[in-house]
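User: Here's a protein and a ligand (guanosine-5',3'-tetraphosphate). What would the complex look like?
Assistant: Let me lay out the input and then the predicted complex.
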Amino acid sequence: MSTIQEEIAKRRTFAIISHPDAGKTTLTEKLLLFGGAIQTAGAVKSNKIKKTATSDFMEIEKQRGISVATSVMTFEYNNLLINILDTPGHKDFAEDTYRTLTAVDSVILVIDCVKGVEEQTERLMEVCRMRDTPVIVFINKMDREGQNPFDLLDELEQKLNLKVRPLTWPVNGGATFKGVYHLLEKQMYFFKVNKTKVEDDVALLELDSEELDLKVGTRDADQLREDVELIDGVYDQFNREDYLSGKVAPVFFGSAVNNFGVRELLEAFCQISPLPIARQTNVRVVEPMEKNFTGFIFKIHANIDPRHRDRIAFLRVCSGTFERGKFYHHTRLDKNVRFSNPYSFLASAKEVIDEGFPGDVIGLYDTGTFKIGDTLTEGEKLLYAGIPSFSPEIFKELINLDPMKSKQLEKGVQQLTDEGVAQLFTLQPGNRKVVGTVGELQFEVIQYRLEHEYGAKCRWVQMNTTRACWITSEDPKKLQEFIRLKGTQIGYDKDNNPVFLADSEWMLRMNRDNNPDIQFHTTSEFK
Ligand code: G4P
């Protein structure tokens, strides 16, 4: 039997992130093909919220239901057990993605070479930077006429506040794309339109060799030499430690749909990506090698079948060995719980497992005991830090349409917001409930689910609020005074933290300027 050290050394847990349409699904699928986890191209598509479904939330929920099975995709490659945690591409579910990012050890960021850095990429990278998550960049769609690669790298550095280091370099792009030169291996990978096969056309070519001229043509060979000289002059040598500490992101170029550049990416990932890492709790840093099991819930997925209210909680194992049927301590509720049917997501089929190791994600059936961020231990009182909430963008007050069903409504809203569908703020006096989301879709989802799962009817009243900022102060009296003065502009989040609800950026700035003793935080995660 292998030791826990060996199990940890084998695991790599990461997420692929991108702005929708950059090629995340395609790249995921190609990686799974390499790992033999799927046999045919197209198999991952069902995991994707289709573009045509953007206005039909029930369709989206259905698709999200299907995607539970593929929320974690595990495959083996080079003797490693690789877990890809899927993140929904749809903007309205961005919060889901932020939370998933707390459960990974590294990410691969996909950029469309035509569009460059897009809006959602910036938000996602903000989350990665909060935890110094190591990032590998894959610049995709090189078969299309894209931007100049140096310009793309500059854009990455500026917009994402991220230092980059190319490890492969494209020879041309678009219709004349010839392939990529691997700067460390000194090999030229020749591009072929190749949608299914996985073999490569590779040649070991020194930059100053005549053979390079023969293979790619003198003009392109000279351009490549010039580019490489510039790269060596501008960028520091690649250093794994800098990547692991989130300081530098290596960059690869390719074309996922043509299966090109994917193998180099995967090989590099296997060599440099981090093993399950140590994690911060409210008490101390927990090392994965520790004997005792600890883990946290980063995602909860409701059963979309209204007859079954049970949910699936996704547990990330952080240390020790998780065992089936053993009692663990639920630190927030201060009670012991155990799970008789925990399952893994291996081969996309649910499979009951007896044990789990750091890096693993385990599905637990939940009847309402879990909230996102909950921690399980063998008794130690600690909570994993850092499941951030971001300021929502749309705020609506929830109005109960059936006074006889207030209790159901209350319970439904509590549970749905525990799941992380949206954020709940309570306004006093009157216990008014304000729901904040990043997309309109969630309001429809909540309204539908309240009615069908909890039998409660509601309607929404749009609020003027556009920003929510968590407020703190060194001086509790000043904070109380601010809260008193602002009255209805103050709400309380689920953990009873005060939040300032601002109608505009201008109003927020004014309040900031006028109240230097109050700190305004745009995420719930602050020190
Ligand atoms: P996402 O998950 O990031 O949203 O993107 P997805 O992989 O679905 O890719 C978005 C579109 O980009 C797809 O086309 C996909 O085929 C295409 N694509 C992915 N990689 C490449 C590439 O290297 N080169 C080119 N030219 N296109 C690429 P679609 O038309 O939206 O879907 P489909 O009908 O082709 O599946």
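Summary: Confidence is low (pLDDT under 50) at residues 51-55.
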